[in-house]
Design goal:
The chain is of the alpha/beta class. It has helices at residues 12-28, 40-50, 66-76, 93-102, 114-124; strands at residues 4-8, 33-37, 54-58, 83-88, 106-109. α1 (12-28) crosses α5 (114-124), α2 (40-50) packs parallel to α3 and α3 runs parallel beside α4. The protein is globular, with a radius of gyration of 13 Å.
Length: 127
Amino acid sequence: MNRKILIVDDEKRTLMLMERTLRDLEDEHEEVEILTASNGEEALETIKADKPAIVFLDIMMPIIDGFDVCNIVKNELGMDDVYIVMLTAKGQEVDRQRSVEVGADLYLTKPFDPDKVFSIAREALGL
């Protein structure tokens, strides 16, 4: 079973915090693998190559933003089995609505609750 997690964020601090939050899953279950990307282009390459089960995707990023990445993955590539969690500092309803429109499975605002992120990943991976 696919147990890869991709974290996409252009802020190093957020990337590190997310990795630290999910590291326990990797430690508990050998088959869990954490991947990272720092922009939308990198994210798309990683998603195509590694097909992660779950993607924590920042919205505001250089090159390709999270909305476009999600839209490409879900609607153009038809990768419905990739669970996408939009992770953003933008809490406006318009952003939440756009996330739904591009096919995101979940929308979380920063600062996020590490326990919630952990349980979302655990559930999406079927652990």
